[in-house]
Design goal:
CATH architecture of the largest domain: 3-Layer(aba) Sandwich
Radius of gyration: 19 Å
Strand content: 5-15%
Largest sheet: 7 strands, parallel
Strand order of the largest sheet: 6-5-4-3-7-8-9
CATH class of the largest domain: Alpha Beta
Shape: globular
Number of strands: 9
Number of helices: 8
Order of helices and strands: EEHHEHEHEEHEHEHEH
Number of domains: 2
CATH topology of the largest domain: Rossmann fold
Structural class: alpha/beta
Length: 260
């Protein structure tokens, strides 16, 4: 990545590096990786991409080393935009407390909003609060309730960790990032990459439009099976979410990335 001043950011972190002032990069590592060549004569990728593979490998190895041995954990997703006075924020905080009391670590994206709330609840209850951060142009740093944090340059490396070290997912109201993580997890369960893996949607009112569309349009047109609607549970309270996770923990698991 060639450093270039970005006047909108005074400080920028990526991996072990800190940039300030004129040294703030103009692109994230993911942006640089996914940028198309400018034309047939542009062969710079032949030199940069092979070396980038080594960086990706190092990122995965470092994350495996950091997270190995954390014990059972639940990945919690949700909007980074939620404020502490939001009722869903308090529900995520309560879920973090309940999961910690049950002996689960809590894994989030390490950012603000719902992620902060779940990390906060786990931390306050004396549980293990884990944050998997990502290099983004407008979001920097992990929330203050993270006990164990790992920062990633690449989204796909980070996604591996959300699944490999989790025993289930809980999705609070969120936007595109939450939907991305939700559907990726559903695909892994549907294709038997992981099994006995609970996926819980928190908030019936919020998720009702999505579940209705899946049932009335996607299933109705034959693009998915009616049984796929059973891959997730929709609940309204943290206690109900924990009940789903408890029930799944009594179901034998086979195969999948979630097992180490």
């Amino acid at each position: 990545m060639v450093p270039k001043k970005n006047s909108g950011t005074d400080e920028y972190r990526t991996g072990p590096f800190l940039y300030r002032g004129d040294q703030v990069p103009s692109q994230t590592e993911d942006q640089a990786f996914l940028t198309e060549p400018t034309g047939p004569e542009d062969s710079t990728w032949k030199h940069s991409d092979p070396w980038r593979v080594m960086r990706i490998q190092a990122e995965l190895v470092a994350a495996f080393d950091a997270l190995d041995g954390i014990g059972p954990a639940i990945s919690v997703f949700g909007s980074a935009r939620a404020k502490p006075d939001n009722s869903a924020y308090e529900a995520a905080r309560e879920l973090g407390r309940l999961l910690a009391a049950e002996g689960y670590g809590v894994i989030t994206g390490g950012g603000p909003g719902m992620m902060e709330a779940a990390n906060r609840g786990a931390h306050e209850a004396g549980g293990l609060s884990i944050g998997l951060g990502i290099e983004l142009p407008r979001e920097q740093g992990l929330n203050p309730w993270v006990d164990l944090g790992v920062d990633f340059r690449y989204f796909f490396a980070r996604k591996v960790m959300f699944v490999k070290y989790a025993s289930g997912f809980v999705a609070f109201p969120g936007g595109l990032g939450t939907l991305d993580e939700l559907f990726e997890s559903l695909t892994l369960v549907q294709t038997d990459k992981i099994s006995g893996f609970p996926i819980v949607l928190m908030g019936r009112e919020y998720w009702s439009g999505l579940t209705s569309w899946l049932r009335e349009t996607v299933v109705a047109q034959g693009a998915m099976s009616a049984g796929d609607l059973d891959l997730f549970s929709v609940v309204d309270t943290p206690a109900d979410a924990l009940a789903v996770i408890r029930a799944a923990s009594r179901t034998p698991r086979s195969g999948g990335m979630g097992r180490r």
